[in-house]
Amino acid sequence: MMLSFDEWNVWFHSNDQDKKIEPWSIAPPQLEDVYTLEDALVVGCLLITLLKHADRVKMACLAQLVNVIAPIMTETGGRAWMQTIFFPFMDASMYGRGTVMAPALDCPTYESTYGEAGYVETVGVYNEEKEEFTVFAVNRNLTDEVEMKVDLRDFEGFVPVDHHIITGAHMKVTNTADEPWNVLPMILPLPAMDGCVANTELPPTPGTSSALPRRPSKMKIQMPCAKLRTGHFWCLAYPVLPGEESRATSTRGRGKGDGD
After folding, report:
1. Between the CA of residue 17 and those of 12, 22, 73, 234, what are the distances in Å?
2. Torsional sign, CA 140, 186, 149, 91
3. Strand, helix or coil at 198?
4. Angle, to 10 degrees, between the axis of helix 37-52 and the axis of helix 86-95?
5. Per-residue model confidence as pLDDT tens digits over 195-248
6. Number of C-alpha atoms within 13 angstroms, CB side, residue 254?
7. For all residues of the chain together, what is the average pLDDT?
């Protein structure tokens, strides 16, 4: 038996606002959640979870696309802009195509409401047709960066070709009609390679991404990812605050203060 997620998304911001709508109003704005950078991280984690279960989840539909709990907002007869959650969804759509590779992850943990959980959430996707390997990753730690290593021994010749993050000034920042670029993908330096291992650091929560292909390719400015060529490698993590360094990394992670 396969599974379908009929509708999913973050939804709570508009609850109080909608209670103020007058009865019998004509076409009032409803359920128009304004999403934060924090919400983009939640969506990124959910997309990673859906990818991890791609063997059973064959369909997962984002609930509405425009205005109503949506990644795109518009004004009647006016402007349109991308919400923060647009960017992780865009990344997953563009780079999450192919065969999902379950990571052998080793990372620091913390106690959550549901028991022990890893600070790093990650998954890899191999696109055989394009000869690309993409890693999506999120560092849940709010204060410490995590050193990340991606072991690419089964992808000989793959090198980084692109690396980007989704970032903003703080976790509650939003994109609006007047300030549509508060949260954006940002290009980062390519991950350093040590033999078959790509090395980078995941900054404290806010994001990054990176990738590897087989031929040289231009860096894609518009995406939050890093790419490796000669094979492609992409790594995506969410997010990074302005001014903080970040590089793409892998399936093994350790806290900065942890021992070797």
Report:
1. 10, 11, 17, 39
2. positive
3. strand
4. 30
5. 777 777 766 665 444 455 443 222 222 223 333 333 333 344 433 333 333 333
6. 7
7. 74
Contact 134, 124 (CB under 8 A): yes
Place of tokens 């650091």: 201
User: Is residue 145 helix, strand or coil?
Assistant: coil
The tokens for 24 are 């019998």
Bridge partners, residue 146, by sequence: 202, 255
Place of tokens 């000869």: 131
Report the DSSP beta bridge partners of residue 255: 146
Strands 72-74 and 184-187, sheet pairing:
unpaired
DSSP class of residue 22? P
**C-alpha–C-alpha distance, residues 171 and 186, integer Å:** 16
Q: How many residues does this entry show for the chain?
A: 260
Do the bridges between strand 208-213 and strand 227-228 make them parallel or antiparallel, or are there none, so unpaired?
Answer: parallel
Distance, in Å, from the CA atom of 114 to the CA atom of 73, rounded to the nearest integer, reads 34
Residue with tokens 């647009």: 86
Half-sphere exposure of 78 (CA within 13 A, CB side): 9
What is the Cα–Cα distance from 161 to 248, expressed in whole angstroms?
A: 11
Longest CA span, the chain:
66
**pLDDT, tens digit (0-9, with 9 covering 90-100), for 70-102:** 999 998 888 999 999 999 999 899 888 999 988
Look-up of token digits 């010749």: 157
Cβ atoms 65, 71 nearer than 8 A: yes
Q: Which two tokens stand for residue 36?
A: 């934060």
Look at residues 240, 259, 65 and name the one whose alpha carbon lies nearest to residue 138.
240
Where do we find the tokens 């990644």?
71
Contact 132, 227 (CB under 8 A): yes
